[in-house]
Design goal:
The complex is a heterodimer of chains A (154) and B (139). Chain A contains five helices and five strands. Chain A is α/β, with parallel strands linked by helices and 154 residues long. In chain A, helix 1 (14-26) crosses helix 5 and helix 2 runs parallel beside helix 3. Chain B has helices spanning 14-26, 39-47, 68-76, 95-103, 116-132, and strands at 7-10, 33-36, 56-59, 86-90, 109-111. A five-stranded parallel beta sheet of chain B has the order 2-1-3-4-5. Chain B starts with 6 loop residues before the first strand and ends in a 7-residue tail after the last helix. In chain B, 39% of the residues are buried. At the A-B interface, helix 4, strand 5 and helix 5 of A face helix 4, strand 5 and helix 5 of B.
Chain lengths: 154, 139
């Protein structure tokens, strides 16, 4: 992606999360990946001032506790969070999910390919696009905060 | 069959508009480009139900009559129009412009390079991403 800020992956399935992590590694994406397992955890992560504000959020839809759409409703109504671009990354190709997501102003909706090679290609396209795009500066104090290591799934 | 929804380009400069059109052709895209010269014209286009709703909007910021930010405020207040992804395509690198655009829920902010070859590559990247992404089938 464009800068060295972290990417927040909101995904309940640990295998899917590992796949994203693996694809990042294979593509040599240098941004660190922070991981929340549902919408609620993602909001807590984003609201914690000790955490680096991510440059992009990759969002699964079907999650327990708080699903993707519910997370979107809250995040897109929050003055600080709404400017972070959200890209849906899901297995759902349901038209309703697509429409709802764009209703809440997502910046992309990607259906996860089952084939790993195609999945890597998809992540590559996402990375290229969000490297090309400018991103809003986060008004969180000094640049030192950008050096904080984001939590990474082990 | 895929409905051939156009891309709406909102751009006051006709040379810049021609460049976008040329780049889209040069990448081999079959996308139709519809152009409005400012925000007001673009809103008229979008609100006219006889026009095909675009699948994407490429939006310049600095335009007379109604600029890009004003246009964004209008469409994002419209329940149907707000679903169309908007990508800002501008010469402005101003932090304020970037911040305000993302606060109005744009789906990308791209600064136009002077070099045409680089511009073509940029159009290619935008095209590939939005070919990968699902898009809402509105109205």
């Amino acid at each position: 992606m464009r800068n060295s800020r972290s990417i927040l992956l909101v995904e309940d399935d640990s295998i899917d999360a590992m796949t994203v992590k693996r694809a990042f590694k294979d593509l040599k994406v240098t941004n660190s990946l922070a991981h929340a397992i549902n919408g609620e955890e993602a909001l807590s992560y984003l609201r914690d001032y000790n955490n680096e504000v991510p440059c992009v959020i990759l969002l699964d839809l079907n999650m327990p506790k708080m699903n993707g759409i519910e997370f979107l409703k809250i995040a897109k109504n929050d003055d600080a969070l709404k400017k972070i671009p959200v890209v849906v990354l899901t297995t759902s190709s349901e038209e309703r999910d697509v429409v709802e997501s764009f209703r809440f102003s997502v910046a992309g909706y990607i259906v996860k390919p089952v084939d790993y090679k195609k999945f890597v290609e998809a992540i590559k396209t996402i990375d290229l696009y969000w490297t090309l795009s400018e991103l809003p500066e986060q008004d969180l104090g000094t640049k030192d905060s950008a050096k904080l290591e984001a939590n990474i799934v082990s | 069959m895929l409905s051939s929804k156009p891309i709406l380009l909102v751009e006051d400069d006709s040379v810049d508009a021609m460049t976008v059109k040329r780049a889209i052709e040069d990448i081999g895209s079959k996308d139709t480009l519809v152009r409005s010269a400012n925000g007001e014209e673009a809103l008229d286009y979008l609100r006219n139900e006889t026009n095909k709703r675009p699948r994407l909007i490429l939006l310049d910021l600095n335009m007379p009559k109604m600029n890009g930010i004003e246009f964004l405020k209008h469409i994002k207040a419209d329940n149907v129009l707000k679903r169309v992804p908007v990508i800002v395509l501008t010469t402005s690198m101003e932090d304020q412009d970037i911040l305000r655009s993302f606060e109005l829920s744009i789906a990308g902010y791209v600064v136009k390079p002077l070099d045409y070859k680089k511009f073509v590559e940029i159009i290619r990247t935008i095209s590939q991403y939005w070919a990968l992404s699902q898009l809402p089938c509105t109205g």
